[in-house]
Amino acid sequence: MSDVILDAADGSTIPVQAMTEAETGPALESIPAGAKAFAAISDFKGKAGQLLLVPGADGALAHVLFGLGAGGDPMAFRTLAGKLPAGTYRIARVPNGMSIDQIALAFALGSYRFDRYKAHGGERARLVAEGADAGEVRQVAHACALARDMVNTPANDMGPLQIETIAREIAELHGATIAVVAGDALLEANYPAVHAVGRAADPARSPRMIEIAWEGAGKDRPLVCLVGKGVVFDTGGLDIKPSAGMRQMKKDMGGAAHALALGRMIMAAKLPVRLAVLTPVVENAISGDAMRPGDVLASRKGLSIEVGNTDAEGRLILADALTRAGELEPALTIDLATLTGAARVALGPQLPPYYTDDEELAGQIEAAARAASDPVWRMPLWKPYAEALDSDVAEIKNDPDPWAQAGSVTAALFLQRFAPAGPWAHFDIFAWNPRSRPGHPAGAEAQAIRGLYRMIRDRFA
Ligand code: BES
Ligand code: MN
Ligand code: ZN
Fold first, then answer.
1. Which residue has the higher pLDDT, 246 or 72?
2. Of 237, 236, 231, 63, which is closest to residue 163 (Cα–Cα)?
3. Active site residue 241
4. Ion ligand 2 — residues with CB under 5 Å?
5. Facing residues of 277 across strands?
6. Least trusted range by pLDDT, from 131-135, 203-207, 231-235, 396-400
7. Is 397 a catalytic residue?
8. ∠ CA 133-139-141 to the nearest 5 degrees?
């Protein structure tokens, strides 16, 4: 990804006057008379997303006016990046209550495009973010772009080996160690559920457990454990998905991509924690060796799991990964997973639900998500529904009885049986924009991790 956020200008910059509707009157008084007159005949009112390109005497772009509507949300600047022609800009007018850092980050997120398979990527608008911590903005933006690139990349080019390679690069870049257990060695190392889900894949795409450990900020720091669902493609297994549902399943490694991206942010900023990133990576494929409906699996925790539906595979691999997390005795565990279709039915594509029984943690997540303009919504670990996971033949089953209905809740309750004893939160992310909006192209989206980065920074400050 090319850097669109610059520390300083290497030539002239085009000023952007950003203003809310309410600020538009006084703001237009402060710009040159010609530009002001042009704004008047163009009916520029500062409405949300309204963009006016004002030419100078020579016809070149001289001023940009950008409307923020009622204002308040710095993420509105994603739209600006999505609409501006190529060039180098600066924010000449920072609206009340917004920081240049938030604006620059929004601009970087809004300029993201996935052009890996297109011959012409095209020039991008760049922003000189004077007064911003451009280094940090770039790190966070890069991590989000990495997650989006991983999710957008189809499964033929984003298999288990590619995810392992990316994890190795991240670890090496930040002086972390990495351990990978792959294929039949998963049985030896006691990851039976990860093995069972991934064993049907082609040997070149064998299942693996990837574990990054980082102590770059000191060995005595509290441990933060990040866990991410890495299903490189989810056919549904023998309980095969209908074609419409399978179509998007290259994104089913979104949790792993998000965990790696968040881990990268934490290491790049050297937050005062120790870090472990655990990503079980599998392809939920179909072959003679595939797990079957009715199979009973062993798990790392020792609980037997009946596979009622091979399409509820994410919770199986996360069961082993969360058990592993608990062995590390973390001060905080966060898992991220494209776990259920039901999460989207409940809250739609833009608002990922999260689950925790820790009130203090919930408050911190809430506050940080709000401050980062990275929306999430708490849903309950509603204990009475746990009965829907009772199995006739094993200690738990992976497909809840239909009477409980709330599929995202019962999936979270399944994970809770395997989660570490201490503070834990689970995010059932969608990781996807189903349609394009300015600054939010259709395809992969990074969700929850900017807020989580901020929460972890504040919690362990
Ligand atoms: N990866 C899917 C969940 C999913 C589907 C996420 C669509 C985003 C969009 C997951 O593995 C799955 O198939 N879950 C099933 C669980 C069911 C079989 C108990 C689901 O949600 O239908
Ligand atoms: Mn599935
Ligand atoms: Zn899945």
1. 246
2. 231
3. yes
4. 234, 311, 313
5. 212, 226
6. 131-135
7. no
8. 100
Tell the residue nearest (CA) to atom 9 of ligand 1.
341
In this prediction, residue 160 has a pLDDT band, given cuts at 50, 70 and 90, of very high
258: closest CA among 114, 444, 77?
A: 444
So what's the pLDDT on residue 2? 63
| Mean pLDDT, the chain, integer | 97
pTM for the whole thing? 0.98
Among the listed residues 246, 1, 216, 230, the one whose alpha carbon sits nearest the alpha carbon of residue 113: 1
**pLDDT-wise least confident of 30-34, 99-103, 363-367:** 30-34
Mutate to test the pocket of ligand 1, among 311, 345, 432 (most ligand atoms within 8 A of CB): 311
As a dihedral over the C-alpha atoms of residue 298, residue 257, residue 211, residue 421, rounded to 10 degrees, the angle is: -60
Q: What is the pLDDT of residue 121?
A: 72
Q: What is the pLDDT of residue 122?
A: 80
Atom of ligand 1 nearest to the CA of 236: 13
Q: Which two tokens stand for residue 307?
A: 């596979």
User: For the stretch 275-295, what's the b/e string if a residue is b when 16 or more beta carbons lie within 10 angstroms of its beta carbon?
Assistant: bbbbbbbbbbbbeeebbeeee
315, 344, 417, 450: which is the annotated catalytic residue?
315
For 32-36, 105-109, 117-121, 421-425, which range has the lowest pLDDT when averaged over its residues? 117-121
Which residue in 83, 93, 113, 241 is the catalytic one?
A: 241
What residues have CB less than 8 Å from 118, skipping those under 6 apart? none
The minimum-distance atom of ligand 1 relative to the CA of 338 is: 6
